[in-house]
Amino acid sequence: xxxxxxxxxxxxxxxxxxxxxxxxxxxxxxxxxxxxxxxxxxxxxxxxxxxxxxxxxxxxxxxxxxxxxxxxxxxxxxxxxxxxxxxxxxxxxxxxxxxxxxxxxxxxxxxxxxxxxxxxxxxxxxxxxxxxxxxxxxxxxxxxxxxxxxxxxxxxxxxxxxxxxxxxxxxxxxxxxxxxxxxxxxxxxxxxxxxxxxxxxxxxxxxxxxxxxxxxxxxxxxxxxxxxxxxxxxxxxxxxxxxxxxxxxxxxxxxxxxxxxxxxxxxxxxxxxxxxxxxxxxxxxxxxxx
Length: 290
Description:
- By secondary structure, this protein is α+β, with helices and mostly antiparallel strands.
- Helices cover about 10% and strands about 25% of the residues.
- It is built from 1 helix and 14 strands.
- The strands form 4 sheets. It has a 5-stranded mixed β-sheet with strand order 6-8-13-10-11, with no helix packed on it. A 4-stranded antiparallel β-sheet has the order 7-14-9-12, with no helix packed on it. It has a 3-stranded antiparallel β-sheet with strand order 2-1-3, with no helix packed on it.
- A hairpin with a 5-residue loop joins strand 4 and strand 5.
- The longest helix is centred in the first third of the chain and has 30 residues.
- The radius of gyration is 30 Å and the shape is globular.
- About 10% of the residues have low confidence.
């Protein structure tokens, strides 16, 4: 083949080879750079999102570290009241919680640093799951030592969807009484709480408003009261609840000021039928400021 013919052949082959190479590169890029679609089921680890329980109570659930699953809808979720489906008009998991200055944790906070930040019930800087404050900075433990006497177990209430709750028992605890008995117009026997053991909580309100303390899931004749001080005995209550004569729940609501501490006593009372087996037992206490 003469040189001029070779040159023409080279010029005709080179563009086709270049185009073929470009096609291979384009195909490789298409295979390696295809954008991933967003999975709406994923969550941001450490963030709380809105949820509702079956009875339509508002709650919040924590996105776990795997970014794909959530903790329980607190504080309302239970075996008998599981998380329910959201309905039209409810906030979606992608939206912030209804009360941004109350329910959500501090984005700059860190559980376990010993400093209680917004959204934390407590922070005792350890990982003991039974001493009243667990490794997630939530109330935990049925018989925390700090609840036996004054000043009580530290509880921080931020308001909104943040509702610290603890399941425990009054058995094997300390015993205080109130100066003025607490009774009810519905016929419950006035009581001083002197005949039964109690549990003490040191509650710091982070919001001005009306705080509700509810004692539920009781197995005994519950008696509930709140004070501004925590003496070893003869407590002067500012609010009390002893409406049920016998096994039953109790709830008390009182005005609170931001930055002020209140002492909550979960106690027991002797029923009018003098059934001493109902002086102490199991309970769940929940603190909330709307």
